[in-house]
Amino acid sequence: xxxENINDFLIYCNIHNFSKRSQDIFRFRLIExxxxxxxxxxxxxxxIKYYHLTDFIINNNSSVHVKKPRIWTxxxxxxYLKLIGITKKSIASILPYPKIDIKEPDFFSFIELKKILNxxxxxxxxxxxxxxxxxxLFLSFLGLRLSSVININIQDINLKxxxxxVNEKGNKKRLLPLPQIICFFLYSYIKSxxxxxxxxxxxxxxxxxxxxxxxxxxxxxxxxxxxxxxxHRFRHTAATFLNQVSGIEVTKEVLGHKRRKNTERYVHLNPxxxxxxxxxxxxxESDF
Length: 288
What we know:
With 288 residues, the chain is mainly alpha-helical. The chain has two domains: 3-83, DNA polymerase, domain 1 (Orthogonal Bundle), CATH 1.10.150; 110-273, Intergrase catalytic core (hpI Integrase, Chain A), CATH 1.10.443.10. The protein contains 13 helices and three strands. The chain has helices spanning 3-15, 20-37, 50-57, 64-83, 110-122, 127-142, 146-150, 180-193, 211-225, 231-246, 248-255, 260-264, 271-280, and strands at residues 157-158, 163-168, 172-177. The protein has a three-stranded antiparallel sheet with strand order 1-2-3. Helix 5 (110-122) packs antiparallel against helix 6 (127-142), helix 6 (127-142) crosses helix 10 and helix 10 runs antiparallel to helix 11 (248-255). The longest helix has 20 residues, at 64-83. It is elongated, with a radius of gyration of 24 Å. The N and C termini lie far apart (78 Å).
């Protein structure tokens, strides 16, 4: 019933520069919604009621992480229908977003990170080994998202100026300074690629490395080392260590956050600073 409207909506999203990821979510959830509506044998958009939306959102005992994109998609879709005059109002505008409990971010200890870096350094004597080491350095020193790392192109790197043009979610771009240690390894790695354009990180088949392949690498490494390795743990770790030496504002800029509140989720209390504080606490040396 909604197939034509869905196609028109996706064209609208593309014209208005919604990210590819957003468009993929819209496409998947709206096809899912259209299939759900087939159970009610509706013949017109105007027959869709609010309870159809709420029933769809909770369909199949969906988790909060499924409910949220369903609600977001319905809100955007029905807003579009109102915008072009198909409906007089958006029945999805009052759909409440579910509350997602914020988990305490996990990060590597200094000892764990040192072990991981040494592991990849000791296995960097091959082309793929050097590739893996540089990926780890980007994640752990700059706190980049894995998607941003695997999308880096050779032309995004300026070794003379020691900077990197980062392409992030939402088609946003920003310039980041590169630590000398990363430039050192990048110089020989890029030289071995023997090209000036194209993906920086390649698979064994010469294609751009995929997220799935990197995640598989982390799984194998986790089993060997006995340390749970996940790309976002590097981001939390980078934020925590960076905040210890530079403060929240610099950390916010490096992570690419617009809001200080988002950065604070990634930052943890430095246990060493806490120990030093407790040593200076006036009651620590007092006689009771």
